[in-house]
Design a protein that fits this description.
It is a single chain. By secondary structure, the chain is an alpha/beta fold. 40% of the residues lie in helices and 13% in strands. The chain contains 16 helices and 11 strands. The strands form 2 sheets. The chain has an 8-stranded mixed sheet with strand order 5-4-6-1-7-9-2-10, with helices on both faces. The longest helix has 23 residues. The structure holds zinc ion. The site of zinc ion has 6 residues, from helix 13. Zinc ion binds next to helix 13.
């Protein structure tokens, strides 16, 4: 009897090692799902320093309620100011995950494309390399395959990918026609929600509120759609693209740039907590958070971004999840936007950089060495 048991034990061990070697699941990793989130045009300066005092004024930031905005966001130290602006980033991600791009602390992250605006940035994030041909924000289908599309075709993700985006160019960046990935973007009504009355209310508000921008809806609508889709459809890979901070900055409204940034932080926290409340996601989900481009550093440069405005190539990135050691702010000079795609794939146990030689390598140190 004892001999039989030993035999069964040995066989089981053999079978388990084989299953792991064959890649039945990402070897020794905990991540089964990835939430990729971007916040359009949010500067690393606000992420790591909080609100900039100079801009909380009528003259430089076109702030309407100066006293109230000072009370809401200005603090004595950068540490207190940034935690006030982005409490989820600083109380949760910075303590349990990793952050890249704080130039005040010797961490530099940048884009590799030489455009420094949105479509080239999102294509670099999602494809893992810059492409000279992507030279405008026009609604032109992306000639390149994104990591979303690449992973959708791998067994580990098996088509369970979706995107919710505030900006209406995303169906082209993700090339929905070719990729088949569902992308709900811009002012398109939401379709998936548990409670029909809530869905109708969001769609009615979306249809009736004044639209400050024809191509960008409010982030709270995008995030609600993403949360409901996560709960009901359970995608393995969900991309959520928030957009308001960039547009409020272009409007020259520093107060609303700050408000929308704080809202984005809250919406990301809500998405994360929604995932952690579901058995399929709790302890098995990694959040990857980044930005498409920087903005100017000096004068009124904060309002805009381009190759002619210094600082527009400076970005930040963050990762939180069960395979990521809690190292907080990561020093280093060579972090790039091109590394996001391979990092997302690596979380699923896939070697994107090997398959796509033009793609950047996985961000170093984001994944703990796999358990043996
Ligand atoms: Zn912009």
């Amino acid at each position: 009897m004892k001999r039989l048991l030993n035999c069964v034990l040995v066989l089981s061990v053999c079978f388990l090692s084989l299953a792991t070697a064959w890649g039945a699941e990402p070897a020794g990793r905990n991540t089964r799902n990835v939430l990729l989130v971007t916040i359009d045009g949010l500067r690393w300066q606000e992420v790591f320093r909080g609100a900039e005092a100079r801009l909380v004024s009528k003259e430089e930031g076109n702030v309407k309620e100066v006293e109230a905005t000072r009370d809401a966001y200005l603090r004595d130290t950068p540490e207190a100011a940034r935690e006030t602006l982005m409490p989820f980033v600083w109380r949760v991600i910075a303590k349990q995950g990793q952050l890249f791009g704080n130039r005040d602390a010797g961490s530099e992250a940048r884009v590799l494309n030489n455009r420094h605006f949105s479509y080239p940035g999102y294509s670099e994030i999602l494809c893992g390399y810059p492409d000279e041909r992507i030279s405008s924000n026009d609604k032109i289908p992306n000639p390149n395959v994104t990591v979303l599309e690449w992973l959708a075709r791998r067994p580990v993700v098996a088509g369970r990918v979706a995107a919710f985006c505030s900006w209406d160019v995303f169906p082209f960046i993700i090339h929905t026609e070719r990729s088949g990935i569902p992308v709900n973007a811009g002012w398109t009504p939401l379709e998936v929600a548990e409670h029909p009355a809530a869905l109708a209310a969001f769609n009615r508000v979306s249809a009736e509120l004044p639209r400050v921008w024809a191509g960008v809806r409010y982030d709270t609508i995008t995030a609600y759609g993403a949360r409901e889709y996560l709960r009901l459809k359970k995608p393995r890979l969900l991309y959520v693209s928030l957009g308001e901070p960039d547009d409020w900055a272009h409007e020259g409204r520093y107060d609303l740039y700050l408000d929308s940034t704080r809202t984005c932080d809250r919406l990301i926290e809500e998405l994360w907590n929604t995932a952690q409340a579901m058995p399929e996601y709790a302890g098995k989900t990694t959040l990857v958070l980044t930005v498409d481009h920087g903005r100017g550093r000096e004068g009124d440069g904060w309002k805009n971004h381009s190759v002619d405005i210094p600082g527009s190539d400076e970005i930040w990135m963050a990762v939180l999840g069960p395979d990521t050691p809690p190292l907080g702010e990561r020093p280093g000079k060579d972090f790039t936007q091109s590394q996001i795609a391979a990092t997302v794939a690596a979380l699923f146990g896939e070697d994107y950089a090997a398959a796509i030689p033009t793609a950047g390598e996985t961000l170093p140190g984001v994944l703990a060495p796999a358990r043996k």
